[in-house]
C-alpha cells in the first residue's frame, strides 16, 4: 500500500514539474539555527513587496515556487533571529540551506521597522498563538517552576482551573477537549503534583503553539484546542548543557553531537533532559520531628520525575530519522503504624510516549514524514489496612486496588506538497489503536474473601484522512480550505464523520486584515470527572455503541492589525461554538463504579453517565510584542459558557464550573541591562460558578427500623425500642448558581545573569501573589455562635496560597 502511495506522489510531483517548468522554478532547503544546527519551525520565507511566501515546516523544510527572474530576492525572518536576504538568478531549481543567528548570538540587537516575522495581517491562520520559549523562561512562575501550560493560561480564550492548577479550559471546553501533542504523540494527563505543575520541561522544548479555533484539517480528535509541542533535536556542533536548582525540584539537560572519528561532518545528535522533585526528601525529617513522641507514627512522601530524550540521524538532504520519548511518573504514599493497626496507602500515575519519525524529500516540491507512535497513561490507587482487635486478639485485613489507563499505538503519514506559486497542500492519513482500561477494582477484607469488579479492556480503532490547501486566491484574499474524514471502529458500532474546515483572510490595508473561520470537530475519547480540579482519578473512556462521539461546530471572525514601527500585533476575535454529546457523571455516581460488592452483576460505566450539550460564545482581545527590550502582551476575554443535561439540574441549563465572564492578563518583560531582566504578571478573572449549600438543618430517623423484629440481621422476634439518630443535612438549590469571589493576583520576578566565555549563570528571585490576595480555593458551610449565643450558619472561604517567594539558580555551559 505504501509503495502505491509513493508512486502516486511521485507522479504528482512530476506532473506539477512539467506543468510549470517553462515559467516557474522552485527554491527549497532547510533553515537551521547557527551554532547548534537545530532545525527551525515556522521561519517565514517570502518575496518582498509580493504575495509570494511560505514558512518552514516542523522539520525546518521550506519550498517556494516562483516565476523565472534575473534578480530574485528571498527574505528569511523569524522572531528572535537575524533577518537574511538572498538575491540570485532564478533560471533553474535551486537548493538553499539557511542558518539564522539567534538574538543572543549577535553582538548588538537592532530593532528596526523591517518585519522580523510574518505579520498576523498576512497569515490566513486565526485563533492561533505561539509563545517564544525564551519568553516563557523569563516570566515569573509558581515556586520558580517554569510551566508551559501556565503561560498558555495567560492567553485570551484560555482559562485556568482552580488556584495553582495546570489544567486549561479553552473557549468553554473541558480539559479532555485539548489535543496535547509532544513530537506527534498524544499526552493524556499533563499534570504533576495533583495538577499544580505540568509534565513539560521547557529546557527540552523548541516550540509551543496553541490553536483554539479555525483548525486546519490535519488536526482532529478534540473539540476545543490543539497544543503542539516539539522537542529540540540536540546541538550538532558542540556539547551543551543547562539546568537549574529550585525550591522543590532540580533539572538537567545535556545535548550534543554524536560523531565518530571517521566522519567529517556531524550527522547525528542527542538531547536528554531530566527533572525530579525532592519534596519527599525535604518533608520526611519534618514529619518525623512532629511525631517524635506520638503513639501513632506516619511515614510517606511524594515525588515526581520526568525524562525527555531524543536522537536523530541525518542521511543527507533527502532522508532524516528521529527517535524521541517522554517518561514521567508521580508517586504519593503514606504508611501509618499504631499499636492496634498499620495501613499503607498509595496513589501513582504516569505517562510514557515514544515516536519514531522518518523524513523523506521526494522532490523539491514534495516532503513526506512517516511516524510510528506509542503513548500510554495509567494510574493506580492502593490501600492495605491490617488491624488487631485487642479484646479477641484477632487480625482483620482490608485491601483495595484500583487501576485505570489508556494505551495507544499509532501510525501516520503526512505530506507537504507545493505544486504552484499560489498553492501549498498538506495531506495525510493516520490510524490509532486505542486500548482502554476504564476500571479495575479488587476488594478484599475479612467479610468478603475477594471481590473483583473489572470492566474488560476495550479495543478501538480511530482513523482519519485529510487534505488542505493554503491558496492565495487574489492579492488580497488568502484561504485555507480542507476536509478531514474520521472513522471510528468499536465493538457493536462504527462511526464515519466528515469534518470540513475553512479559514480566510482578506487584506483591507497593507497592515490590516479581516479573518473568518469555520471548523467541525469530532472527539471519540471522553474524560469523566467529578472532582472538578483535574485529579489523576479522572477516567478516560471511549465512544461506544451507547455513547456517541462528542461534536462541535465553531465559527469565528475578527481583525488582525500590525504596528510595524512599534513591533506590536493586535488581534480581536469573536466566536460561537455549539457542542453536542457531552458526557458527565449522574448525580451521586463515582469513578470507582462499584455498587454492591456482594453482587455478581457487572456495572458498565455508561450506566453512570448522562449525555448533554453545551454552548460557548464571546470575544477576545490580544495585544502582543515578542521582541525588543520590553516585550509581553495584554489579553482580555469576555465569554459565556452553558451546559444542559436532561438528568442534571432538573434538565435546566447551567453554567459549568469554569464559566468566567471576564478574564484579564497583563504580562511584561523588561531587559534593564543585558544581564538584568524584570518581569511582572497580573491576572484577573470573574469567580467560578459553584454549587454551595443554601441551608443546613438536623434530620432524625429511627435507626432501629433497619434492624426490626423480623429483620434477618437481628434474628429475633423481641420488640425493639426506637432509637433516633440525628445528622446534619445540607440543602442545595440549582446547580452552580453561586459565584465565587473574583480571582486576581500579581507575580513579580527578577533575573541576574553572569556570562563568561562558555558559561552562563542566572539567579532568579520571584514572588507569587505579591500582594497576598486570598483567592478562593473552595467554600464550606460552617457554624458559629453569635453574640446572642445562637448558632448560625456561615459560608466560609478557604485559600491555599498566600504570598510565596522563591529562589532558583540556573546555569548553562
Q: Can you give a write-up of this model?
A:
- The protein folds into 2 domains: 2-105, Immunoglobulin-like (Sandwich), CATH 2.60.40; 128-633 and 643-691 and 807-812, Maltoporin, Chain A.
- By secondary structure, the protein is mainly β.
- Helices cover 5% and strands 57% of the residues.
- The chain has a 22-stranded antiparallel barrel. A 5-stranded mixed β-sheet has the order 9-16-17-12-13, with no helix packed on it. Strands 1, 4, 7 and 8 form a 4-stranded mixed β-sheet that branches.
- Mean pLDDT is 83; it is low at 11-22, 105-116, 594-600 and 706-714.
- It starts with a helix and ends with a strand.
Largest sheet: 22 strands, antiparallel, barrel
Beta strand count: 48
Return Rg in Å: 29 Å
Shape: globular
- Annotated CATH homologous superfamily of the largest domain: TonB-dependent receptor, beta-barrel domain
Give the N-to-C terminal Cα separation.
Answer: 48 Å
Number of domains: 2
Tell me, rounded to a whole number, the average pLDDT: 83
Strand proportion? over 45%
- List the total number of helices: 4
Structural class: mainly beta
Stated plainly, the CATH topology of the largest domain is called Maltoporin, Chain A
Helix content: under 10%
Amino acid at each position: 500500500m505504501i509503495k502505491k502511495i509513493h508512486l502516486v506522489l511521485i507522479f504528482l510531483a512530476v506532473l506539477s514539474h512539467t506543468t510549470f517548468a517553462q515559467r516557474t522554478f522552485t527554491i527549497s532547503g532547510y533553515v537551521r539555527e547557527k551554532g547548534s544546527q537545530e532545525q527551525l519551525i515556522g521561519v517565514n520565507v517570502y518575496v518582498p513587496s509580493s504575495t509570494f511566501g511560505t514558512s518552514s515546516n516542523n522539520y525546518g523544510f521550506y519550498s517556494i515556487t516562483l516565476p523565472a527572474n534575473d534578480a530574485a530576492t528571498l527574505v528569511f525572518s523569524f522572531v528572535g533571529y537575524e533577518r537574511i536576504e538572498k538575491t540570485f538568478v532564478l533560471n533553474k531549481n535551486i537548493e538553499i540551506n539557511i542558518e539564522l543567528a539567534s538574538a543572543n548570538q549577535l553582538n548588538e540587537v537592532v530593532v528596526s521597522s523591517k518585519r522580523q516575522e510574518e505579520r498576523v495581517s498576512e497569515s490566513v491562520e486565526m485563533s492561533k498563538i505561539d509563545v517564544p520559549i525564551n519568553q516563557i523562561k523569563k516570566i515569573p512562575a509558581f515556586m520558580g517552576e517554569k510551566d508551559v501550560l501556565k503561560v498558555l493560561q495567560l492567553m485570551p480564550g484560555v482559562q485556568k482551573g482552580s488556584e495553582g492548577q495546570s489544567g486549561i479550559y479553552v473557549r468553554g471546553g473541558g480539559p479532555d477537549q485539548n489535543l496535547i501533542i509532544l513530537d506527534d504523540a498524544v499526552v493524556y494527563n499533563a499534570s504533576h503534583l495533583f495538577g499544580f505543575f505540568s509534565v513539560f520541561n521547557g529546557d527540552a522544548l523548541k516550540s509551543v503553539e496553541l490553536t483554539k479555533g479555525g483548525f486546519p484539517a490535519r488536526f482532529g480528535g478534540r473539540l476545543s484546542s490543539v497544543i503542539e509541542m516539539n522537542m529540540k533535536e540536540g546541538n550538532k556542533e558542540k556539547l551543551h548543557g543547562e539546568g537549574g536548582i529550585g525550591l522543590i525540584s532540580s533539572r538537567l539537560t545535556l545535548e550534543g553531537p554524536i560523531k565518530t572519528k571517521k566522519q567529517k561532518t556531524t550527522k547525528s545528535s542527542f538531547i536528554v533532559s531530566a527533572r525530579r522533585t525532592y519534596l519527599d526528601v525535604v518533608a520526611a525529617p519534618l514529619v518525623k520531628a512532629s511525631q517524635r513522641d506520638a503513639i501513632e507514627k506516619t511515614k510517606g512522601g511524594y515525588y515526581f520525575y520526568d525524562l525527555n530524550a531524543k536522537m536523530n540521524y541525518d542521511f543527507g538532504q533527502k532522508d532524516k530519522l528521529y527517535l524521541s520519548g517522554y517518561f514521567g511518573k508521580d508517586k504519593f504514599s503514606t504508611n501509618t503504624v499504631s499499636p492496634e493497626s498499620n495501613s499503607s496507602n498509595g496513589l501513582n500515575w504516569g505517562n510514557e510516549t515514544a515516536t519514531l519519525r522518518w523524513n523523506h524529500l521526494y522532490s523539491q516540491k514534495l516532503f513526506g514524514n512517516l511516524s510510528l507512535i506509542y503513548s500510554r497513561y495509567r494510574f493506580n490507587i492502593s490501600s492495605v489496612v491490617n488491624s488487631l482487635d485487642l479484646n479477641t486478639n484477632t487480625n482483620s485485613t482490608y485491601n483495595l486496588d484500583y487501576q485505570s489507563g489508556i494505551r495507544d499505538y499509532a501510525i501516520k503519514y503526512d505530506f507537504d506538497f507545493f505544486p504552484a506559486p499560489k498553492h501549498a497542500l498538506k495531506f495525510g492519513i493516520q490510524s490509532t489503536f486505542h486500548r482502554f482500561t476504564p476500571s479495575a477494582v479488587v476488594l478484599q477484607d475479612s467479610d468478603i474473601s475477594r471481590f473483583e469488579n473489572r470492566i474488560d479492556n476495550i479495543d478501538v480503532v480511530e482513523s482519519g484522512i485529510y487534505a488542505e490547501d493554503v491558496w492565495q486566491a487574489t492579492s488580497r484574499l488568502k484561504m485555507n480550505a480542507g476536509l478531514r474524514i474520521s472513522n471510528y471502529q468499536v465493538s457493536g458500532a462504527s462511526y464515519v464523520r466528515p469534518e470540513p474546515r475553512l479559514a480566510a483572510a482578506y487584506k483591507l490595508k497593507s497592515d490590516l486584515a479581516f479573518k473568518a473561520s469555520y471548523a467541525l470537530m469530532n472527539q471519540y475519547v471522553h474524560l469523566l470527572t467529578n472532582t472538578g480540579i483535574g485529579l489523576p482519578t479522572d477516567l478516560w473512556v471511549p465512544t461506544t455503541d451507547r455513547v456517541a462521539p462528542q461534536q462541535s461546530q465553531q465559527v469565528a471572525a475578527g481583525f488582525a492589525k500590525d504596528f510595524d514601527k512599534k513591533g506590536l500585533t493586535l488581534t480581536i476575535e469573536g466566536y460561537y461554538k455549539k457542542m453536542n454529546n457531552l458526557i458527565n457523571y449522574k448525580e451521586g455516581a463515582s469513578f470507582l463504579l462499584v455498587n454492591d460488592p456482594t453482587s455478581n452483576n457487572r456495572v458498565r460505566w455508561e450506566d453512570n453517565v448522562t449525555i448533554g450539550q453545551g454552548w460557548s460564545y464571546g470575544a477576545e482581545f490580544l495585544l502582543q510584542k515578542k521582541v525588543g527590550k520590553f516585550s509581553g502582551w495584554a489579553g482580555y476575554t469576555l465569554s459565556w459558557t452553558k451546559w444542559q443535561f436532561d438528568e442534571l439540574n432538573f434538565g435546566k441549563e447551567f453554567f459549568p464550573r469554569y464559566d468566567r465572564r471576564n478574564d484579564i492578563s497583563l504580562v511584561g518583560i523588561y531587559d534593564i541591562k543585558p544581564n538584568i531582566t524584570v518581569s511582572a504578571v497580573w491576572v484577573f478573572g470573574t469567580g467560578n460558578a459553584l454549587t454551595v449549600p443554601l441551608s443546613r438543618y438536623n434530620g432524625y430517623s429511627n435507626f432501629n427500623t433497619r434492624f426490626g423484629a423480623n429483620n434477618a440481621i437481628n434474628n429475633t422476634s423481641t420488640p425493639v425500642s426506637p432509637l433516633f439518630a440525628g445528622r446534619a443535612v445540607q440543602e442545595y438549590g440549582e446547580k452552580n448558581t453561586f459565584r465565587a469571589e473574583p480571582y486576581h493576583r500579581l507575580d513579580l520576578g527578577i533575573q541576574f545573569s553572569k556570562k563568561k566565555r562558555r558559561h552562563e549563570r542566572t539567579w532568579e528571585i520571584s514572588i507569587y501573589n505579591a500582594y497576598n490576595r486570598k483567592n478562593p480555593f473552595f467554600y464550606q458551610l460552617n457554624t458559629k455562635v453569635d453574640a446572642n449565643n445562637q448558632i448560625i450558619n456561615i459560608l466560609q472561604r478557604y485559600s491555599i496560597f498566600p504570598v510565596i517567594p522563591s529562589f532558583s539558580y540556573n546555569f548553562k555551559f
